[in-house]
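Try it yourself: sequence plus nicotinamide-adenine-dinucleotide, in.
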Amino acid sequence: MNILITGGAGFIGNHVVRLFVNKYPQYKIVNLDKLTYAGNLANLKDVEAKPNYKFVKMDICDFEGVMRLMQAEHIDGIIHLAAESHVDRSIKDPFTFAQTNVMGTLSLLQAAKAYWESQPEKYEGKRFYHISTDEVYGALAMTHPEGIEPPYTTKASSGQHHLAYGDQFFTEELKYQPHSPYSAAKASSDHFVRAFHDTFGMPTIVTNCSNNYGPYQFPEKLIPLFINNIRHRKPLPVYGRGENVRDWLYVEDHARAIDTIFHRGKVAETYNIGGFNEWKNIDIVKVLINTVDRLLGRPEGADMDLITYVTDRAGHDLRYAIDSSKLQRELGWEPSLQFEEGIEKTVRWYLDNQAWLDNVTSGKYQDYYRDMYDKR
Ligand code: NAD
Ligand code: DAU
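Structure, out:
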C-alpha cells in the first residue's frame, strides 16, 4: 500500500509513522505535515533515512497540492491525524481550529474523492481513516445511582475490572456534545468524514481516543509540561481544584490500535480507543512529582509545594472515560502497558531527553501561559 499519514511530525503521528515504516517495509509511507509549532521533524530522526519513508511539508488545506501528491504517490490509504490539538489554544484562537480541523479535513476528503474517483478501480481497496477524540462526546458526571463514592471498581462489558469515577462511559452510540472549540471542530470533522461515506461511498473509519501520554508530546499538555516544570522547580499550574478526571493511554498503544483498525476495522464503523484508566488530575500530578523526584535522587515528594492552583479552564469538562469494549471484543486489541509502567517510562524519557525539551520550550511559549492564566 501507499499510505499518506497527515500530522506525522506531531506527538501521536510520529509514533504511527515509526510503527508503519518499521513494520511494513513493503509499504510506502508519505508523511504530510505543515510543521506548525507542534510538528517537529526531530521526532522522526530514526526513520528519515528509511527507503519506504518520505516527508512532504504541506498544509492539508492545500486541496490542489494534496491531490497532486496523491496522484504522484498513488495513495490508496490515508491516516489523518493532522489537527490543532490543544484545548487551551482553541479557547484563545478558535478560528485556527475551524480552519485546520474542519476545512482542512474537508479539503483532504475532497482531494481523496477527486483522486480516487478518477481511478478505474474507484474506491476499491481504498481507505480514509480519521483519528478523532473522546472529547466530542462531552463530559461525564462523577456520580453513581446508588451513591457509591468514586473511585470504585467496576466491570466493562469486555469483562475487564477497572477503577471508575462514575457509572457512565463514552460508548460509540453516544450522541455528540462537544464543549470546547477544539472538540466542536473535531466533532464537525467526524461528521464530514461520515458524510463522505454516506454520500459518496468513500470507505471511511473514525476512531475516538482518550488522552494519550508518552515520549515526544509537546510540553504544553499536562504530563510533559509538568515533568519539565518539576525538573526545573517551576510552579505546576493545576486548573481549578485538580478534580477533573481524564482517561490515559500510552501513545504506542494508540499507535498499535490504529494499525489494527486500519487493517482490520470495518468500513463506516466507529471504534472508541481507551485503556480503562481514569485518574484525577491532582493524583497524576502527585505521581509525577514522586517519580521525577525519585529518578533525580531528590527526597521523594520534596516538590509537592510546586502545586499551584490556578483559575480553571473555561468550560472545563469534568470527566472523560472511554469504553473500548467494542475494539477489544471485535478486533482483539488491548493496551499493553499498565499506567504505572507507562508513567515511569515516560518520565525517564523526558529526563533523558532534556535537549529535545529545551529545543521546543522557548521563552515565548512560557509567556503564552503567563498571559492566559492568573495565579490565584
Ligand atoms: P499534535 O498537536 O502533537 O500534532 C499535530 C500535527 O499536525 C503537528 O505535526 C502539526 O504540524 C500538524 N498540523 C497541524 N495543522 C496542520 C495542517 N493544517 N496541515 C498539515 N499538518 C498540520 O497532535 P497530537 O496530540 O499528536 O494529535 C494527533 C491527532 O490525534 C489529532 O487529530 C487529535 O485531535 C487526535 N487525538 C489526540 C489525542 C491526544 O491525547 N493527544 C487523543 C485523541 C485524539
Ligand atoms: O481526551 C483526548 C484529548 O486529550 C485530546 O483530544 C487532546 O488533543 C489532548 O490535548 C487532550 O486534551 P486535554 O485537555 O484533556 O489535555 P491536557 O493535557 O491539556 O489537560 C489534561 C487535564 O489537565 C485537563 O483536565 C486540564 C488539566 N491541566 C492541563 C494543563 C495543560 C491543568 O490542570 N493544568 C495545565 O497546565
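One thing you can check immediately is this: The first helix runs from residue 11 to 23.
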